[in-house]
Design goal:
Strand content: 15-25%
Number of strands: 17
Strand order of the largest sheet: 3-4-5-2-1-11-12-15
Radius of gyration: 21 Å
CATH architecture of the largest domain: Alpha-Beta Barrel
Distance between the termini: 41 Å
Length: 408
Amino acid sequence: MQEFNVDFHIHSKYSGGTSGKMELPVIAKQAELKGLHLVGTGDATNPDWLRHMKTILSEESSGVYSFSRGETRFIVTSEVEDNKRVHHLIIFPSISAAESLHEMLLRHSNDIMREGRPHLRINGEELVDYARDVDALVGPAHVFTPWTALYKEYDSLGECYGDNLGEIKFVELGLSADTYMADRIRELRDLTFMSNSDTHSPWPHRLGREFNRISLKSLCFDEVKRSLTNVGGRGVVLNVGLNPREGKYHLTACTRCFMKFRLTDAVELKWRCPECRGLIKKGVSDRINELASGDKPKHPVHRPPYIHILPLAEVISLVSGISTLTSKKINDRWSSLVECLGTEINILVDSDISEVKKVDLEVGKVIEKFRSGRMRYVAGGGGQYGKPTLKEEEDNFYGRGQRHIGDF
């Protein structure tokens, strides 16, 4: 068996709010620096992106494609939104399969010809029917996100996928949750957890900020499928991602001023912020508490470890005090570390911490801190990212009543 670092969920420049740099040659180069071996193409139901894919990529093995001037491999993926605003991740066996699904969905969408992440007039159960016709895999994207996820709309997977529930083999956790949170929900324990970046930018502090390490005999679609269904010794052997407190929707918070609320206060206030009258959005942490069957996670035998990391540029920002992650000073320091120690993933996850400290003592100390679970965070919510901190900062909640240990 071989192990590969994979980010299944990204977007192209044809999705809303994405960088114009989201083109395959740029993605391939940055993925190689990051340490990703396989990357989802994203947006494979968009005709312009499909043409770009067919021009740039050549099939190296069944369902896995390469770009001629690099080591990065691609697998064909897309994200779509159903008629309940639930987002689904699709993994295709080939570019031609994605083209076929595009044709099938044309009559169910007003924007599939121009939008990378199209809006569909069908539900999750119907989507699986279409995906099965082209041998594609489907699962819920960022399953807990309060605006566009399965658990914002439903209380169970079965309510979304109906008679096709048995076809669902994986769940994408999203940035605001991790294994320790999700394994409190009984119905998720048999499924494979994905940790993907959902990036709109190709730079290494976004691409692969969450990724999966999977064990395969060879790099092809069928082996990836086996890994997601834990067949024959294949499987996800490691989930890696941000601490959920860094996610934009971890805590219940106002979507305008980002004040944080305990759930009881949000309900009492009828989900309106008393400071700015903005909408209060239920956080992933509170939503999981509603769905959980117990206070502690129960991990199935097949569940791999989940490691919390920070992007390397974010680590350098912390120790240097430079807030702009794309600044020249941060980029120069990042490049020096990568040149000495290999890819970003190697530095963050695999390298001996003493070797990192030899190259950059300050950076090494922060990596040691999050590897050992001693990193502090100010949690995100309401659409604002959380942040790691080296200071004595903590979350500030709306000041009615006494704070409880569960709020932290």
